[in-house]
Write the structure tokens for this entry.
Amino acid sequence: TANFATLNPLDKTSTTNTYSNGNLTVLRTGSGGSGQALPTIQNVIGNWYVEMTVDTDPGTNLARFSIRFPDANVLSNYNSTGLVNDLDEVDNSVATYTAGDTLAVYVDVSANTYYFYKNGTQVFSETNAIVGSYGSIIYCTCSINWQLSINYGQRPFKYTPPTGYKTLNTFNLA
């Protein structure tokens, strides 16, 4: 039996995140700042594919779809403003996103590369030895009134994942 990752409401990086839909949807309420929504399965090495759908975009502030390599103390964010800051902390202009868009990240450890997608089209990739050497955490961050839904593979993906991907669940950890 595979237990899939969900967003973890017990992780208190934000006290104003509201979780629903079996902890696959997060709505940021309150005022000021932004709140991370971290998964229940973290810091694992593998070829993971994860999708995030933007349910609500209030037109202010921003949302981020992120991959973090905590043991290497680096991360990469795909911001709703159309910037990806890569592992070398360089900003790269890519497509913006808003309500109705579906984003994806694919971590390919065999190629030491990760990719960001928007609506099934690759918008960014980076090759870096960190990708194949360290476990990753794939999560979202949202500002006030953004609502995001994540799919770690517990339901069909909206877009066809790359060859060789795995869904983020306990069965695929070994």
